[in-house]
Write a structure and sequence with these properties.
alpha/beta, 7-stranded mixed beta sheet, 30% helix, 22% strand, globular
């Protein structure tokens, strides 16, 4: 039999941090890892409407690393366009993905309706990328699996999930393909997370597909509670409000736990009001309470940390919170300020120097969050410009992504060096900085993946022999 090859092809998150879709192409089987939406600047968002460069009906299975929209948000459209296989994920990821996809569909339907009523869309009529009905169809494809357990897809391909520490349920994925191990890192979490254990991975891998979001920077090493307490005390001294644009899944819950600890330790006033104004964050918080086995704090503490938080139910309550004159802390989505209720607070809080806007996560190119980090003098919201007079601060240590040092630590914990590392999910400057670091410090051949350009991983010399049984652990067959 002629030799055949295994390729890696990224359909997204190649030289950018968004739209994660990675194909492992083996003889007779195509495996996709993640299926995310492009977010950020308009040119990226427009790519969600472009037909994929591969026939989606030829993809056999999808492995989902975690529930963020840039990793799961394209699933309904892929299934709508003909994908017929299953989507495998951890139990918390399944619950959070349903929340995120339903919210995504609802927002798209509302945006399309608004565009049609006001006539400002280039498309006539304006359409949602996908609908709630499409999400319902996608949910039927979801299959939950256990972490640290092998699942066989074909006689020659099996996979195993490892907790990645990024958000609740997030995993890295080990794929054994014809006796070679390809590890997809997903998004790698922090080694000193507020609530989640440190990221895990197998002892060895032949090829690693690795995220590089913070490949060019280090987070501060100071205590998060000290940094946050300082920001809050400064806000109280000026008599203003603290607005924390937060990612509804992950960061919101971490910040709530930090605020709970600060109040418990009397570092900030116990009576200081805290509002969570994000329906999705509220739902994600309830999901956390259902999966406390994934976190390092007790189920009791998980429940108690929400006791001092007022959850806003609707826009009417948002207006009431804004009208309250006393100092307060508001957590509102979205984390990059691309939409959501946070925009209403920004309209009122940005022009007042007494207020503070605290950024706690990655801010993609083209977002309002990136503009604020770059000290923009004004921000455009709903067609109007608002002057930036509020203090804008950042606590990088609250990010859910490993920094450069932690990425190198993660890579250095393998027992043997991989043959190659393929960098994805990063902006060009971050990827180049990390590539050089890995080359110099780890002595590993490192490649920055180009979108839609297949990378040859290895050649199968004798396919007829098939893959050997890897070990004595029982495996679950997923495909007959």
């Amino acid at each position: 039999m002629e030799s055949q090859s295994v390729y890696l092809q990224s359909l997204g998150a190649a030289e950018t941090v968004t739209g994660s879709k990675h194909l492992l192409i083996a003889p007779g089987f195509k495996l996709m890892v993640d299926c995310g939406l492009f977010q950020g600047i308009k040119s990226l968002r427009e790519r969600n409407w472009v037909k994929p460069p591969v026939d989606v009906t030829t993809i056999d299975a999808i492995l989902l690393t975690h529930a963020h929209l840039d990793h799961c948000g394209y699933l309904p459209l892929l299934i709508k366009n003909g994908y017929r296989g299953k989507v495998y994920m951890s139990e918390p990821t399944r619950d959070l993905t349903e929340l995120i996809l339903r919210d995504s569909a609802k927002l798209q339907e509302e945006d399309a309706d608004k565009a049609n009523r006001h006539g400002y869309s280039k498309r006539n009529p304006a359409l949602a990328l996908y609908t709630t009905k499409d999400v319902e169809a996608a949910l039927l494809k979801f299959v939950t699996i256990d972490v640290l357990k092998e699942y066989r897809l074909t006689p020659n391909i099996w996979f195993k999930f490892y907790p990645a520490g990024h958000i609740l349920g997030a995993c890295s994925v080990e794929v054994n393909c014809y006796d070679k191990t390809v590890l997809f890192s997903g998004d790698i979490g922090r080694y000193q997370s507020e609530m989640l254990p440190a990221p895990q991975h197998p002892k060895a891998a032949d090829y690693i597909v690795m995220e590089s979001t913070y490949g060019d920077r280090l987070h501060k090493t100071s205590q998060l509670t000290d940094e946050l307490a300082f920001v809050i005390k400064d806000m109280l001294f000026h008599g203003g409000n603290l607005l924390i644009p937060c990612f509804a899944v992950g960061r919101a819950q971490d910040v709530i736990h930090l605020l709970y600890k600060l109040k418990q330790e009397k570092e900030i006033p116990v009576s200081l009001p805290v509002f969570l104004d994000s329906p999705m964050a509220a739902s994600a918080s309830r999901t956390l309470l259902q999966h406390t086995d994934w976190v390092m704090i007790s189920a009791k503490e998980c429940s108690q940390m929400f006791s001092g938080v007022t959850i806003s139910q609707d826009y009417q309550q948002t207006r009431k919170i804004i009208r309250q004159k006393n100092s307060k802390i508001i957590l509102a989505a979205s984390g990059m300020m691309t939409g959501g209720r946070v925009l209403e607070y920004l309209k009122h809080y940005l022009p007042d120097a007494k207020n503070t806007i605290l950024l706690i996560g990655f801010q993609a190119e083209g977002t309002r969050g990136r503009a604020l980090l770059n000290q923009a003098p004004e921000i455009k919201i709903h067609g109007q410009y608002y002057p930036v007079r509020a203090q804008v601060k950042e606590i990088g240590g609250l990010s859910a992504h490993a920094d450069q040092g932690e990425l190198l630590r993660w890579l250095g914990e393998f027992n043997s060096k991989p043959s190659k590392v393929y960098l994805v999910h990063g902006e060009p400057s971050a990827q180049e900085a990390l590539r050089v670091k890995i080359k110099d410090e780890c002595k590993v051949n490192t490649i920055i993946v180009k979108e839609n350009q297949p990378e040859l991983l290895f050649t199968i010399k004798n396919q007829e022999t098939g893959a050997a049984e890897v070990n004595d652990q029982p495996q679950v067959s997923l495909h007959s």
